[in-house]
Structure formats: structure tokens, C-alpha cells
Amino acid sequence: MAPGGSRTGVVRGPGPAHPAEVMAVTARCLGDKHKVYSPPYSRNWSIGCRGTSHEGSGEYDNWGGPVGPWSLYLQQLRDRLGDAALRHIGY
């Protein structure tokens, strides 16, 4: 995003101008406005996102805070092969 720019993320439910986003998840996103809507009989989530505001009928989990692990791949590698495997690939 350019300095001073604005970015808005939207996850919507059904409507005339757009299809339904069903069971959608946004995670670790950053923007000015964050909108998550859930259609009837389904849920959409925002997990660990940050911004100046949020709205909508969706689920907000850990708004403005970090969530872990930062990399699912690195965590699974560590669980399977240990810290040495992470050091071997430069982490």
C-alpha cells in the first residue's frame, strides 16, 4: 500500500451484485477498514486482523492482536523435525 493510501477488505454475504462468500477466513490482514459479513446459515471469520475500524455480522477473533503460529509450514516442520530443521533452512 502506498504511504497515505487506503485499503478496505470486504467479505460479504449474498446480494444482487456479488456471490455469497461462504465459510471464508481472512487472517493476519492489515487495512484501514475491515468488513466481514456472514450470509444466513453460514459464518465468515476475521482472525488476527488490524485496521482503524471493523464492521459486519461476521466473527472477529483476536481483532488487533497477533495470532500464531505466523507460518503454519514452519510450525509443522518444527513439530516433525525439530529446531535443527529450521536452522538448516535459515530460520
Comma- or semicolon-separated keywords:
single chain, 91 residues, alpha/beta, three-stranded parallel β-sheet, 6 strands, 18% helix, 22% strand, elongated, disordered N terminus
Mean pLDDT: 80
Number of strands: 6
Question: Strand fraction band?
Answer: 15-25%
Gyration radius, in Å? 17 Å
- Percent of residues in helices comes to 10-25%
Distance between the termini: 27 Å
Q: Which segments are poorly predicted (pLDDT under 50) over 5 or more consecutive residues?
A: 1-8
Order of strands, widest sheet:
1-3-5
What form results from the Cα inertia axes? elongated
Number of domains: 1
SSE series = EEEEEEHH
Query: Main beta sheet, described?
Result: 3 strands, parallel
Structural class by sheet pairing and helices: alpha/beta
Can you count the helices?
Answer: 2
Overview of this protein structure:
- With about 90 residues, this protein is an alpha/beta fold.
- It has one domain.
- The protein has helices at about 70-80, 85-90; strands at about 10, 25, 35, 45, 55, 60.
- A three-stranded parallel β-sheet has the order 1-3-5, with no helix packed on it. The chain has a three-stranded parallel β-sheet with strand order 2-4-6, with no helix packed on it.
- The longest helix has 10 residues, at about 70-80.
- It is elongated, with a radius of gyration of 17 Å.
- The two termini are about 25 Å apart.
- The relative contact order is 0.17.
- Residues about 1-10 have low confidence and may be disordered.
